[in-house]
Amino acid sequence: MKKTIALGFILHFLSIVVVLGQNALTLEDIFQNGTYDQKRFGPIRWMKDAEGYSSIERNSQLVGDDIVRYEAKNGNRTILVGANELIPAGANKPLTVADYQWSEDNSKLLIFTNTQKVWRYHTRGDYWVLDLQSKQLNQVGKGLKTSSLMFAKFSPDASRVAYVSENNIYVEDLQSFTITQITHDGSEEIINGTFDWVYEEELNCRDGFRWSSDGEHIAYWRSDTKGVGTFYLINNIDSIYSQPIPMPYPKVGEMLSSVKIGVVSSKGGDTRWFDFPGDPRNNYLARMDFIPHSQEVMVQQVNRPQNRNTVWIGNIHSMEISTILVDEDEAFLDIHDNILWLENEKFFTWTSERDGWMHLYKVSRDGKTMDLITEGDFDVERISHIDPQTGYVYYIASPENFTQRYLYRSPLMQRGKAERITPLDQPGQHAYQLSPNSGYAIHTFQNTVTPPKISLISLPKHESIRVLEANEILYNKYHALGLTHKEFIKIDIGDAVLDAWMLKPKAFDPSKRYPLLFYVYGEPAGSTVQDAWMGGDLWHHYMAELGYVVVSIDNRGTKTPRGREWRKSIYGQIGILASQDQKLATEQLLKTYNFLDAERIGIWGWSGGGQMTLNALFRYPELYKAGLALAFVSDQRLYDATYQERYMGLLEDNPRGYHDGSPINFAQNLEGKLMIIHGTADDNVHYQSFEMLVDRLIKYDKQFEMMSYPMRAHGINERENTSLHLRKTMERFWLNNSPPGGK
Fold first, then answer.
1. Which of 172, 619, 632, 723 is 20 to 30 A from residue 316's alpha carbon, by CA?
2. Cα 464 to Cα 405, 441, 460, 663, distances in angstroms
3. How far is CA 468 from the centre of its chain?
C-alpha cells in the first residue's frame, strides 16, 4: 500500500514538471535569486512649493546616488544634488543615501547613511548636511561613535541639527559645528530621545524628541528601564563561548519602563518635567508633539489596559497641564497619528470609533465639542492628507469590499457625504502621497495580479499625468508563469460572513479531491485576505502548483475595515474566537466544495498565525491533520505586556482567557503531524516559547518535528541561504505529511 502511494506521488510530481515546463516557479528564484523583486522607487519628498518632488536615483557614472527634482506639471528633471557633491573630503566615492530630508526652506539637505538595524529598522547611522548654496558637505556628530546617531532633524530655521547618540540628545550648530550635549544621564538603563523595545514595537515610537516652533526648546521622552525584566538572547555560533544579549522586555503582568516627558533649552541646561498623574510604570505616554505656533505640547497618556486615552496640554514654561479630551472604549483603543490643528489652533482633528466606525472628528481645543468629519457607515482605513486650504480631508476607505482600498474625501468645515476619488475601473488597493496643496499625488495601484504601479496624478479629478514606475518587467515575468489567480469568496459561518481567498492548482480537475492547505494569521494586528500584490504571494502559488488548494480566511477580529464590533469581538479571547471561526469556516468549505479532501487538511502560519495554527491543531484534532507553526507564541503570558494586554486585558482580570487562548495548555490533544520552527535570536517572540512547547509535547509523549535557526530573528531571514533553506524545509514537511495532487 505504501509503495502504491509513493509511486502515485512520483507520477503526480513528474506530471507537474511537464505541465509547468520552463516557466515553472522555483524556490531559488523566489527566495534567493531575486527574480521577482520589485524595482526600487523613492523615497519621494514633495518640495515646499508643491509644484515638484524630489527622489533618489542612481548615478549612471558614479557608484552613488543623485537627488533629483521633477516638475509635476511637465516632468522636467533637474539634478538638485549630484552624486559628485556627496563625496566627502578625502574620499573617492559618494555617500550611499539610505534616506534624506529637506530643511523647511529646502536650502539644506540632511543625508542618512552607513545605517545599522535597531531591532526592526535601520534607525542608527551617520548624518551629513549639504548646504545647497555653498555646496559644503559636512558630517554632523564628529567625535561621537560611528553609526551611533539617530533621528537627526533640522531646527525650524535650519541653523542647527539635533540628534540622539547612545541614549543622549545633542544639538549641533551648522556654522561652527559646535556640539552641545543636552542630556547627560543616558545609559543602558536610561533612554533619552528614543525608546525601549516595547514602545518601539507596540506603540510605534522611535523618534523621541521634538523641536519647539521657535527652536528655543526641545521636548523629549525619558525612559527608565531599571526594574524591567531582562530577557537574554543567547548567541552560540559567533564565538567559542556563548554570548548573552540582554534586552529589557516587559512580559504580561510585569513591570513597564517608567517614562516621563521633559523640556530643556536647546542651548543646554536643566530639564523640567511634566507631572502627569498616575503610576508612570502603569501608564503609557504614547504621543507628544508641540502645538504649532505655541509654547505648549499635546500629550496622549494611555492607561495600562489601553482602554482610556487622556489628552493633555502642557505649558513648557509653567509646566502646568490640563485635560482637554478623554477617549474611552469598553475593549481597547488604538493610537493614531492624524492630529492637525485648525483655525489658529482653536480645533484639532481626532480619530475615534465612538459611533461604531473609525472616523475623523473635529474637536474644539477645550474638548467641549466634537463634530464628525468623515460621515458614513464605513471605516476610515487611514488618513492620506488633511488640507485646511482646500477644505478637504483625503482618506482611504472601502465601504463595499473589505479586501480593497480607495481614495475618498470629505469636507473639513461642514458635514457632507464622502466623495470617492479613485476611478471605478481600477479594482484593488490604492495609496496616495499628496502634495501639500492637494493638487497632485504620487499614486500607487496594486492588486493580486498587478505589482505596484506608481503614477503621478492630478486631483481631485484623478487624471493620470505620467507613469513613474510600472514594474513592467516583473508584471511580465509573473504573468508568463501562467499561474491561477486567487478567487475571493465569502464563507457564512452563521454568526458572521468571512472573507477568504482560494488558489487552485494549474491542472485542477474538479472531479478529484485535493489537499486543503490553510494560511492563517487571525490576530487583530493584520489581515491575510487582501486584494493586494503581497510580493505576488509566490510561496502559495508554488504550493498550489504542487497540487494543493490553498485557502486563507480572515476571522472576526482581524484588522479589516468592517467596523468596531468586528474588530473588538476578539477582545479577551485571542486564540479562542479566531480558531473557532477558522474551524467553522473549514467545515463550511468542506460542505460547499466537493473537490476538497477532508483527510488532507493542513494549516500553517507565522507569529500570531503560528499560535493560531497550534490552537487549530490542538483544539480541533479531528479536523486538522497537519500543522506548521513558525515563530509562535505558545503561552500568551510569555509575550510582551503592551500587545497582549491591549487585546486580552490585564492578567489578573482575565486569567481564564489567557489560559484558554494559549495553545500550550492543549498540547495533550495533538493527533496530527506537527512541525515547529523558530529563530533563536527572535527578540519579538522569544525562543523560550518554542522550548516550553517542546517540553510540554515531550511530557505528553507527542511526536513532532522541529527546526531551530540559530541567531535568526522573528523574520528568520538573516545570514546566508536562510530564506531558501527555510522554504525547502517547509516544502518537505508538506510533501511528506499531506501528499499533494488530486485523487
1. 172
2. 18, 10, 11, 51
3. 25
